[in-house]
Amino acid sequence: MTSAPLSIVIPTLNAMPRLIGCLSALVEGLSAGLVRDVTIVDAGSSDTTRDLALDMGCRVVECPPEARGRGHQLAMGAQHCQGEWLLFLHADSLLQAGWIEAIEAHIAQAPNKAGYFVMSFDDDSSGARRTAFWANWRALRFGLPYGDQGLLMLRSHYDAIGGYRALPLMEDVDLVRKIGKHHLRRLPAMVITSADKYRQGGWWRTSIRNMALLMTYFLGVQPARFKDWYR
Question: Could you give the CA distance from residue 215 to residue 207 in angstroms, rounded to a whole number?
């Protein structure tokens, strides 16, 4: 019998209760024979994140204090995966109906490319719709999907380009730039992600800040120098 091809990596830090929905959406992938394993890389949660992950059959990897940060966590998670394909997903992102079929079709039709999902927010405000539109446009036009859109790729491809670097910020942009726009493909399925940071910081203010961070990174400033701006 052929092993399920897909390993999923999710970095966490006090991810409850969002993680419940994220993991619940993955269950049908297990029963469909697509998902082989799910690895949670935790950065020292003080809530019940790790207990939930273990209860739901995930592998839990503890990230040491000196190696915390999403870039570290994603890189660590990939090291523990056994699948031929990797899907990197955020704990507050919820895959929607059709994600299994979208991944299966991508694996069959475009194995030389990485894939990402269409993004929406768990918010129906005009600010949410506007921000999601521009995020999806940016990903399609410039080949710059962010981590909350998920990233699917062959393990061999991931290894060949060096995988995630241990960056405190911009680890997602760093990796998709190494992949290149012409080796990225939008998947015909949606992921809904949390809008909490936008609701707390304001849609315009948070969007402008994120754009400023991206431009700062493109100008060659190391993420360690501006990571505190993201908080």
Answer: 12
Question: 224 or 178: whose pLDDT is higher?
Answer: 178
Taking the C-alpha atoms of residue 94 and residue 9, their distance in angstroms, rounded to an integer, is 14
Contacts of 82 (CB under 8 A, 6+ apart): 3, 7, 36, 37
Domain ranges within the chain, ordered by starting residue: 6-195
Q: In the chain, what is the straight-line distance between the N-terminal and C-terminal CA atoms, in Å? A: 47
Other beta carbons less than 10 A from residue 140's beta carbon: 16
Note the pTM of the prediction, 2 decimals.
Answer: 0.94
Sheet holding 93-95, edge to edge: 59-62, 35-42, 6-12, 85-88, 151-154, 114-121, 184-193, 93-95
Neighbours of 182 (CB within 10 A): 8
Query: pLDDT (tens digit, 9 = 90+) per residue, 20-46?
Result: 999 999 999 999 999 999 999 999 999
Q: What is the CA radius of gyration of the chain?
A: 17
Residue from 25, 18, 177, 164 nearest 81 by CA: 164
Which CATH number describes the domain made up of 6-195? 3.90.550.10
